[in-house]
Amino acid sequence: MADYKVTLSEQERAELQDITGKGTHAASKVINALILLNCDQAGGRTERPRTCDIATMLCVSERKVDRIKKKFV
After folding, report:
1. Residue 5 gets which letter from DSSP?
2. What span, in angstroms and rounded, lies between the C-alpha atoms of 3 and 18?
3. Residue 44's pLDDT is what?
4. Residues 36, 8: contact at Cβ < 8 Å?
5. Three-state SS for 54?
6. Which of 30, 36, 44, 48 lies at a C-alpha separation of 20 to 30 Å from 56?
7. pLDDT tens sequence across 2-36
């Protein structure tokens, strides 16, 4: 698969953290937010998890992680 680089702005990161942190949202929306937060290359992170690590951590397929990254980019 192609390598999509997810770079979130401060506002986008805050919005995704609100979705994952509180409120009542659909489970798929929360999982998508968690995927994007884990794929984020901004924010001074020196090392980010690989797609397979994110998929294992969130119990989703690698293909889903790639689709969400592609959709965001």
Report:
1. P
2. 27
3. 65
4. yes
5. helix
6. 44
7. 678 888 999 999 999 999 998 788 889 999 999 99
- The tokens describing 24, both together, are 């009542």
**Which residues touch 8 (CB under 8 Å, ≥6 apart)?**
16, 36, 37, 40, 42, 43
State yes or no: pLDDT of 47 exceeds 80.
Answer: no
Tokens standing for residue 32: 């998508």
Rounded distance, CA 14 to CA 40, Å? 12
Q: For residue 34, which amino acid is it? A: L
Pairwise CA distance, residues 18 & 2, whole Å:
29
Give the CA distances from residue 64 to residues 17, 49, 55, in Å, rounded to whole numbers and listed in that order.
Answer: 20, 15, 8
